[in-house]
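Note to self: the last two entries modelled the partners one at a time, which told us nothing about the interface. This time every component goes in together.
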Amino acid sequence: MAVTSGVKNRTRQAIIDAAIDLLAGNPACSLGDIAAAAQVGRTTLHRYFAERADLLAAVSAEGGERLVRAATLADLERGTGAEALLRLCREYFDLGSLLSLMFAGQGGECWESQDEGGLLRVIERGRADGSIDPALPPDWVLALLWSQLYAAWEYRAQRQDASRHHVLDLLTRTLSNALRPPSS
Amino acid sequence: MAVTSGVKNRTRQAIIDAAIDLLAGNPACSLGDIAAAAQVGRTTLHRYFAERADLLAAVSAEGGERLVRAATLADLERGTGAEALLRLCREYFDLGSLLSLMFAGQGGECWESQDEGGLLRVIERGRADGSIDPALPPDWVLALLWSQLYAAWEYRAQRQDASRHHVLDLLTRTLSNALRPPSS
DNA sequence: CCGTCATGGAACACGTATGTTCCACTACGA
DNA sequence: TCGTAGTGGAACATACGTGTTCCATGACGG
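The predicted structure of the combined assembly is written out below.
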């Protein structure tokens, strides 16, 4: 498969990036808005993605790739379950507006199904090695992870004075506390 | 000001209730859908709320009232700051789909501004009495409260087997752990 | 210099949500 | 029995998003 002319790839990527940013803020935003944000004509957008559903599918695929990439960077096999989860949290935090987009997708549709199994395994490991409270069901831990991640992202968006490092520190502290077993 | 005939009040309330339920699931849902859910004609809906914005304003007002009512029931002046916050959490949890609606409203627009001050005072009290980690900024505590509340609501919606009591127990446990100061 | 490639704009048809008007039906009290 | 309040349905005009077609422009390599 030939690499369809570097120009087309860049245009396509610009559209997808713009779509992620705008859809995160308003899942019902118009294609015209997305095209404008990507600095291309609406005609061009339709040339790459015939229907809205096609664009959404491409955004979904891009999101899935970024999630997998983040999970790889987090090196989930290393350390205790809780440590791995917190590392993953830091990687996910850098996904930016993609977080809002997935949260708007109501908890899980396509992307999560990919590595959700992997995450649940990490959580189980944490419950076994004593770094995560076994009284917490794995999917509740997952819900907790996503909700605090989203809260941290929104917190950072509202208070520009808060540095990335500071917010990440708050997130790490509260999440690890929430998951810690009572005996520890 | 006369009480405009009990019938009109009941119709109006039915429309607002239906609007809260549907808008929580889809903020862009049509007025026709809301009218159908309220079991009234679209004409009637327009008779009570001339424009969509009018209905949204009424929903906003209703949400604000319910929040205030919940805060009153929580008796925020009693006990430590953390205890009061957890009581409030339980009251808020029963607001149901209103939680999703306010979360869709992106963290805070009108309703929160009402009692946000009161909540921040409770959080400050908790920081002072040692029941809340003083290292956590009050508005981060607030963000944490809302995000875990939303997570709990979604968790309950997805897993019908989880009883209200069980979910509320998980929420209380993780939230109080997240807020607990390290020394304790 | 010419051809193609990628693009952007204009215009159109179509569907849907919205807001309005008009008329008919039902319940209820005087 | 009559008049009124509350309602619902049908129809209409309007606005907006969508998907398509057609044509013009600028860039780039032969």
